[in-house]
Design goal:
Radius of gyration: 25 Å
Largest sheet: 5 strands, antiparallel
Shape: elongated
Strand content: 35-45%
CATH class of one domain: Mainly Beta
CATH topology of one domain: Immunoglobulin-like
Distance between the termini: 20 Å
Low-confidence stretches: 4-22, 179-204
Mean pLDDT: 79
Number of strands: 12
Helix content: 25-40%
């Protein structure tokens, strides 16, 4: 009986381990957008899986090439600070030369109660006047600070085909496609984001379904083994 319980407990632990979700990371949404797209809203999703509130999030923006015309959206209960850098050589755009770029956006909670509480997440938005028209991705760096002084730096490089980074950088993939211009038109990135989101959601649903089926199969196999063991033990029990 002890052996049966031990075996069942081990299998149960394996099943629970496989079913446990991976730790959430700081990510940027949408996950992809067209090169050179204009008026693109980017949302940095910051989860809190520690015991203290997150009270500060710092997002470092790339400078080579930079995002042009960046604005930070206010968050109730938080103070946003934008850091800029002056360029020796202005960037020529359709709206004229740009001499300053945003290199860093920091949101700080007014107090711990206004911060991101444990097991919750918060979105922080910026509006980019235009994305780079070259390269394959835009790499951001995020630093998450907690009320107890803990700091998590989401700065680990992400390498295709390499080992999974423990604290990966938020990455926006740049795709080749036609972008819409200014003047209140809906940016192409909105449609691209929706398509990418649907594909990602479908792929995730398929993966979750496959994982669920696998777990159910394992549980049924364990139950079958337990049944066989009980039947075998009953057959070997001496007659009274």
């Amino acid at each position: 009986m002890l052996r049966k319980l031990t075996f069942t407990g081990i299998v149960g632990a394996i099943v629970v381990g496989w079913a446990a979700p991976a730790l959430a990371h700081v990510t940027v949404e949408p996950a992809s957008a067209d090169k050179g797209a204009t008026d693109v809203q980017l949302t940095f999703r910051v989860p809190n899986e520690e015991g203290a509130a997150t009270t500060k999030i710092d997002i470092a923006l790339p400078t080579d090439p930079p995002l042009v015309g960046v604005l930070a959206q206010p968050v109730p209960g938080w103070t946003a600070k934008v850091t800029t850098q002056h360029l020796d050589t202005p960037i020529q755009t359709d709206d004229g030369p740009v001499s300053d770029i945003v290199t860093d956006v920091t949101w700080t909670a007014d107090n711990a109660a206004a911060g991101i509480q444990p097991d919750e997440y918060q979105g922080f938005d910026i509006l980019a006047g235009s994305l780079p028209d070259e390269g394959s991705q835009v790499v951001f760096k995020a630093v998450q600070t907690y009320a107890n002084g803990d700091v998590v730096r989401w700065v680990d490089p992400v390498t295709a085909g390499g080992p999974e980074a423990e604290h990966p950088t938020p990455i926006l993939t740049l795709t080749s496609g036609e972008t819409t211009g200014h003047g209140g038109e809906t940016p192409t990135t909105v449609a691209t984001s929706g398509s990418a989101g649907s594909e990602n959601s479908s792929a995730k649903d398929d993966a979750d379904t496959a994982k669920t089926i696998g777990i159910i199969a394992i549980i049924l196999s364990v139950l079958a083994l337990i049944g066989v063991g009980l039947a075998f033990a009953m057959r070997r029990r001496p007659a009274s």
